[in-house]
Specification:
By secondary structure, the protein is of the alpha+beta class. The radius of gyration is 9 Å and the shape is globular. Bound molecules: iron/sulfur cluster (2 copies).
């Protein structure tokens, strides 16, 4: 299991700073999660202002 970031992402960067395993990075139009590294902790979803990270 991993989280995925939807197109609602406004590229604020809050999730990248708080991910415990640093698997979030800036993509072309939104931030993206490396599914192979994500430990499914849910922190990104809790800090996101627009609810973009969702469990896959
Ligand atoms: Fe990082 Fe946790 Fe979000 Fe996965 S669920 S991307 S480990 S903050
Ligand atoms: Fe995008 Fe939400 Fe992450 Fe901000 S916290 S970069 S809006 S997914």
């Amino acid at each position: 299991m991993a989280y995925m970031i939807s197109d609602e992402c406004i590229s604020c960067g809050a999730c990248e700073a708080d991910c415990p395993v640093s698997c979030i990075s800036a993509g072309d139009s939104k931030y993206v999660i490396d599914a192979g590294t994500c430990i499914d902790c849910g922190t990104c979803a809790s800090v996101c202002p627009v609810g973009a990270p969702q469990p896959e």
